[in-house]
Amino acid sequence: MTAWLLPENVEDVLPPQAWRMEDMRRALLDLFRSRGYQLVIPPLMEYLDSLLTGVGGDLDLKTFKLVDQLSGRLMGVRADITPQVARIDAHLLAANTVNRLCYAGSVLHTQSDGFHRSREPIQIGAELYGEAGAEADLEILTLMLQGLSACGVKTVQIDIGHVGVYRALAQEAGLSGELEHQLFGALQAKDSSAVAVLTAGLPIVLRDAFAALPQLYGDRSVLAEARARLPQLAAIEAALDTLEVLDRGLVNVEAAYDLAELRGYGYHSGVVFAAYTGGRSHAIAQGGRYDEVGRVFGRARPATGFSLDLRELAMASSNTQ
């Protein structure tokens, strides 16, 4: 018998797992609809400049590219649906002051990563455009938690950060280029020794602030500690105010705050969060605020949302029951 091999990190989904994933898709979309989110179905492929505009640095290497035989232009198979939804918000639904949008569909990655272990995730998510306040971030976080519960995930831990804290410190320090890139990496790795070396030439107030970031991880007490240890910059105070609003709104939720969490730094502009369950090392859902995503489409405005992979969610859910 011929062995029909699939590409690495690409696989069939068989019953009963396929039905389980379909039940989750329906449950999530029904939930989104009940909360006023409207379904959009973007195309599987687009011209490359549209797919990568605004987030190209993060998605370029993940995107499969091909030539359109009709126009001769370079096209891409989507690696993330969020930029497509931003284009829809900016151009096709621009008459609306606020848009609550949701989606579900396959995406394709050139390589697997820690979050999407499959190279063909089935991405589902919700986006809220036009609301700038912390209440919008709380709405999205709450919707994500409700969605996970509807899919049978019993216990969830949320890790929450805010890229505005690091951005405010980097701007105050005048960091740029290679130094900012290296410091970013050191903070992500929570490498306190490297942080100390890279900030040695800065004023002591800023040195101490950067050194504090990897240590500012834990329960809600971290927020008060951050106010005591970090400079009283307006952007930092605003970021901490936002995190406190989220903390008050997340009732009976296990939440940890991490001020050195810079995931998606080039893409996100405010709150970032990820959901974990069952001792799994990779997130089952993640999201945050990305106010600049629509600028390149001609409509820069507040935006926040989350997404998850149905494949990962199905496995996580079955392991927690």
Structure description:
The protein has 321 residues and is an alpha+beta fold. It folds into two domains: 12-156 and 301-321, 2-Layer Sandwich (BirA Bifunctional Protein, domain 2); 157-276, Bira Bifunctional Protein, Domain 2 (BirA Bifunctional Protein, domain 2). The chain is 40% helix and 19% strand. The protein has twelve helices and twelve strands. The protein has helices at residues 17-34, 48-52, 56-59, 82-92, 134-150, 163-173, 177-188, 192-198, 204-212, 221-229, 234-249, 310-320, and strands at residues 38-39, 45-47, 64-67, 74-77, 99-106, 122-129, 157-162, 217-218, 254-258, 271-276, 285-289, 303-309. The strands form two sheets. The protein has a nine-stranded mixed beta sheet, with helices on both faces. A three-stranded antiparallel beta sheet has the order 2-4-3. Helix 1 (17-34) runs antiparallel to helix 5 (134-150), helix 6 (163-173) packs antiparallel against helix 11 and helix 7 (177-188) runs antiparallel to helix 8 (192-198). The longest helix is centred in the first third of the chain and has 18 residues, at 17-34. The radius of gyration is 20 Å and the shape is globular. Required for the first step of histidine biosynthesis. May allow the feedback regulation of ATP phosphoribosyltransferase activity by histidine. GO terms for molecular function: glycosyltransferase activity. Heteromultimer composed of HisG and HisZ subunits. Its main location: cytoplasm. It holds the Pfam family tRNA-synt_His.
